[in-house]
Batch of 2 targets.
Target 1
Amino acid sequence: MSTPIELPKWADVSLVPILAVIVAFLVAGLVVLGIGENPVKATVLLIQGALGSGEGIGYTLYYATNFIFTGLAVAITFHAGLFNIGGEGQATMGGLGAALICLNLDFLPWYIVLPLAILGAMALGALWAFIPGYLQVKRGSHVVITTIMFNFLAATLVVYLLVNVIGKPGSMSPETRVFAASAHLPYLHEALAYFGLKIPKSPLNLSFVLALLASAFVWITVWHTKLGYAIRTVGHSPTAATYAGISIGRITLISMAMSGALAGMLAVNEILGVQTRLLLEFSSGYGFIGIAVALMGRAHPVGIVLASILFGMLYQGGTELSFEMPRVTRDMIVAISGLVILFAGALDGLIRRPVAGVFARFLKSGA
Amino acid sequence: MNPMAGQAPAIALSGIDKRFGEVRANSNVNLAVASGSVHGIVGENGAGKSTLMSILYGFYEADRGTIHIHGNQVRIRSPKEAIALGIGMVHQHFMLVEPLSVIDNVMLGAEGGPILAKGEAQMRAALAQLAETYGLVIDPDAVVGDLPVGLQQRVEILKALVRGADILILDEPTAVLTPDEAEQLFVLLRTLAAQGKTVILITHKLNEIMAVTDNVSVMRRGEMVATLKTAETSPAQLADQMVGRHVLLDVSKGPAKLGPVRLSVEHLIIRDAHSSLRVKDVSFEIRAGEILGLAGVAGNGQSELLEALAGIITPTLGSITLDGQDLITLAPTPAERREQGVLHIPEDRQRMGLVPAFSAAESMILGFQSDNAFGTGPMLSTAAIQTHTAKEMDLYDIRPRDASLKTAKFSGGNQQKIVLAREIEHRPKVLLVGQPTRGVDVGAIEFIHKRLIALRDAGVAILLVSVELDEIMSLSDRIIVMCGGVITGERTPETTSDRDLGLLMAGVTERAA
């Protein structure tokens, strides 16, 4: 029987994920080597693509914004002992919520329509997570099952609405009209230009600031409010929560709704910030990768922001890499992301155990 | 060692050292256990008993020191090697597969090849043999989950014996047994010793040491402080050795100053989630300034009764009144009960009383998390709960004095003190106490008992649920006994005996002896 040794906190939150990424890159390097490309060169290209130019950094942070929202959404349910894997559907519904406000109210000035649109995104996202939460509390149907079912429901509902109700009249493609300019969330380069600062053009928009605010909000809520205490108690020990007079059902509903609202905010970045119209499949897998982000970030907002930037780099750098090295296709990049998810999330113990072993030996010889 | 093999001790440990990081779990431990004897090892939690036994059973290897088994020096690197050397262990928590039969459990890991039939036949023969030699009779085809706890323990012992154990280590074996079952276990242990087996008994119950062992070793803070002949020692001497100072085993308490009836329970009926009847028409009352002891073997409805009183589960029928007010309608939830002054030290502190993953400060406010003393409005002030906890840690001598240390890292006694401090400091009118000293060391037991007595003298009505008869006898002003969901009798400590209570716990209701 091996002695369980707990890792120091710094090693737990930094060393283990960093090692996981390195191992993932080594394995990915073998794949690159296998198709006859130079893995070192590929890595350099990837990092250059992600961070080598202002535009690259802009794109990286734009992708990271999506991951922050979906990562936070998953993390908050982790703390309550729940597993919301319906980020895709909640983000889709968030897009619908934002679009409904914009399509109907975009004649109003931006300072009215934008906050309403953001609230609309949060509200429908929250609703789409609240219902599975309610079904679990009242009917015992597990949220893992229902949230994934709700992904399909959201997708088909939005297709129906785009084709039959809110789609642009006379258009063949299932999308709405472009919102009026008052309902466009400004790009960061536009916002900063207003203050006389010049940064390269990219899709990075004010949602990134919202994502950082959301991270701070989650941090404060989980660790510095009575609600967060109740959420963590339910997550760690439902029996202790019952003893303490905390209603598990109520906490389930609240944390699912908060989670859905955060996932819905992905639409703020994609729909209000970039697309300025509602279209299909804008959530494109961010909801699922949010699970990996939350795992890798140890469900802590700081970790989630860092993990999101890493995935943002993979997305952006990967796109550049597939331009430069045509043999490294888009699918290869997906495979590399997959490896990072595999090592950082699923195979966490693979890294943790040897690291713990090294620490144990170190402590023994040091003592 | 002794050249005459027949007289070599079954086990001789010398100079055993074991460190975990900074902690010296065992330091220079020497122990000789005579062949064919029952040897007790006592010590507080964290004294190093479990570490020592884990070294003997091959879970850990010692950093230094030697082990001799029957005079031969050995290295034990895994439980497998320990078994090969004839060492068997019966854990406190049974390692049994409940849905499987006795024979399946005994065979597990010793199936004797891919075809079961042959191994099973051999195993049945071995079991029959053991039944004959030691009187260990058990139906090999009974499903383990259906057996009473005492028989499940027999299966564990059989598992060890069938594997050829001639040294048997038992870790707190009576924690889950009725007095009767414990008595039967002791008879079995004596039989085993008489037949030449060597038995090591780890326990914190000094009466058991006195009842069944030949020799007893006392551990304190990783060291072996004394090895004595049981016949030449006393529980008081052992307790002092364990703690390293003089301990009052008997709780001194003055006569109760009874006030008016505080809590009154009438015709309470409780069904569990599977709607089977757990508490059947139970009525009693507790007065201010009184400790009512509720004795019974675990699982006879006490837990459900306690949870119903605390508002965690809702009784099917009956009434619970506090100072004449109906609590079931007036304060149905745990939070509302708390507001009414009904506080609760739960039986299972790990699962209910604390959150092991939380800091001590966070566990210290469990149940009182909405209190404005710990943060205004929706906020929770880490500084406020840390200061509060630091104060309580001083008052209740909770060690280490580190409010941000994870609750799981405190010893059982100190964890229990966290719960105790939390509930007492919120000024209970009625205190519901479940197993207050389970897994708690002697020093802390003394402390907890004194606090409960002080609380009773201050006019609190206390319901004490415990499976420890000693505790019930020494603390209670009145005792009720539950068996099978009904109260089988009411006694006072002066007019009853362990035997009398034991019979009531077994459901024998007519007054005996």
Target 2
Amino acid sequence: MSLLATPRDAGYRSGPDGARNGAGRGIRRGEAVAGWLFMLPVLVILGVFLLVPVLMALWVSFSDWSGRGSPLSSGVGFVGLDNYAAVTTGGGLAERDFGIALRNNAWYVLLVVPLQTALALFLAVLVNRAVLRGRGVFRTAFYFPSVTSSVAITVLWLFLFSTSGVVNTVLARVGIAGPNWFNDPSGVLHNLLGALGLRTGPDALTQHGFLGVTWWDWLAGPSVAMSAFVLMAIFTTSGTFMLLFLAGLQNIGPEVEEAAMVDGANAWQRFWRITLPQLRPTLFTVLTLGLIGCWQVFDQIYTGTQGGPGKTTLTPAYLSYQSAFLSQDWGQGAAIAFILFVIIVLLTILQRWILRERPDVPRRSRRGRPNPRPNPSGNPDRTTEADR
Amino acid sequence: MTRPISRHLAGAGAVLVAGALVLTGCGGSGFADGPAAQDDAAADSLTSSDDPLSILIGSSGDAETDAVTEAVAAWSEESGVEAEVQVASDLPQQLSQGFAAGSPPDLFYLAPEAIAGYADNGSLQAYGDLLANKDDFYPSLVENFTVDDTFYCAPKDFSTLGLVINTQLWADAGLTDADVPTTWDELAAVAKTLTTDDQVGLSFGAEYQRVGTFMAQAGGGLVVDGAPVADSAGSVEGLEYVQSHLEDGTFAYAADVGAGWGGEALGKGLAAMVIEGNWVTGALTNDFPDVEYTVAELPAGPAGPGTLQFTNCWGMAADSPNQEAALSLVEHLTSTEQQLAFSEAFGPMPSIESAAADWTSANPDLTAFLDGAAYAQFPPNWAGATDVITDLNSQLESLKTGDVATILGTAQSNLEAIAE
């Protein structure tokens, strides 16, 4: 649980303004009731459409509900962790499917999150430059894929990446025989190793595994089909995150940058040492949203491949749907959804810990002189030293 | 910026939890009053009321929708019971929602692989034994819809797989009617003759639902007579035959020649022969009207002829308030006359033996499909069988480089895990 504690140690502890907790006494007494009244519609809507369904799903994941009638009716029994056990330690098809889905999605996240973040940042920096002509046009163009329906884009992608589609035609022009994209279940890393002559893994990897999938298969990399989805995710979402970065960039005052120029920093140094550190809050938002979105990928799979070829585009979100609606294993479907939830939360905490505000003593000593002004990102890491 | 937000979030969270407790309180009691739980699925007595019927179908296209709508409207007029046909965009999902909410459609298309799951949770009304025309259905179709010795629902129609041949490409290769293959050796020979740089001899989808015919012809299959036989000698021999010809390039999966399915491969001239079912006729007429084809029975393997059959039934909901009317509608929809009309409209074969003669005279070119009914196997209809077949299919995609014994061994252990 040190993960939980660390960010707070690093400067998120609430400060001395706890005194405001006292509001609501005396002359302002009636405000609380009015406040609750104003919030009631939202609370009711959130409760009915969000919280109650989530709690019911949580109950289903611990029950033997079979999909008929209400999960809260008397015939439904509590089965403890049976559903969770079936997909994590059952040893059967359910466990292997879950392992495969996690494998696929982990590779997807590993590729999409860094690439889309980097591309979004790159686009934002480009579009943010004052000298660029027609900035509005570029902004709109980059953002356009994000406002298009993901179903439409998926269908477009299926056409582009079909065996005799545009992508393969273009590749053929330059002398490359393109793969059979959405029908190719082979892992990209396995293919690379295969090209180097390594076609079967060492026994240490093929004889042992996790969640019914051998280590060798965990290392298969995304399949060629999944790679096409990776490209699509980067293409569609980098526009959205470009907007977030753009907003972040426009919040940064020009003074610090100018000061750095006076100090003789070149453009590359200014980006890494001045701009990027100030974008840290935005970066955290983008990475978190990207992480969550990537682990929940569903609609592309549902419209595009339904988990094929060779189950290599199966994701936990789609597997959850499949177990519940198609196989009538409602408990397992809900259990998968909650395991996915835990994975996302843990990864977000981990990422928050990695991106935490570190005490900036090392930075100061590196520069050999104090910062030109208090931390410009506006984060309260000044309180750090006082807290200690 | 972090501190105020986190405090607000904490406050909002507390409020939400409090609100949710209140809401689940009242929501819970509402739900608990829901549908009377767990009727006896095998009850002889059907419900009866004046409620209109709703029928949910997963349609292959306008032709099917119109034909079913017309047939239901005709029955409605005759019987005086209102009935409405709805086309599902995602049938399994909409059915599941209906069952969960306690308001399912009265009648619906139901696939054999889904029947065990719905039968187990009591969603289905078993009415097979109440049908007036019960003995007219093909016995193998009845077996498809029998779970725990209960005949649940009436097969609405069926299809089998046959060998569909592009006559133009056949003649171009110098082959005649006498060359139509009847054994594996002959199939291999003509496939080799027909394979050129631009086309393969035989193509089919990379799935058990096509490749399984070879397993059947060699005496194997997935489930035969209620026992899993996925790793039997016959199954292995069937897959090895396919594997050897995928390797020498005379057979190819439809996806590998750049087609979505066998019919497309045939229509585009990418394959001279394909293994497809009755539905191929409608698709070829619509998409490739200029392509001429003939249909032959699949060649026999070492253990004799073998094919697969596919069917759906008219499922009836246990929660339906008007089951007697629904039963009468099913009898109307599965009558000889009505099934022949459906067959003419959208292709499948009637599920009753008394319609066979009329169907044969109406479709002299397609008799190979109906002949297959005599020896067809069907995919297992056990609960969980869909997952097993999906898993098998995912491995069949790489059959060319895979190990047959491993693939079938996995399928066998998966089947044994769900065996009844």
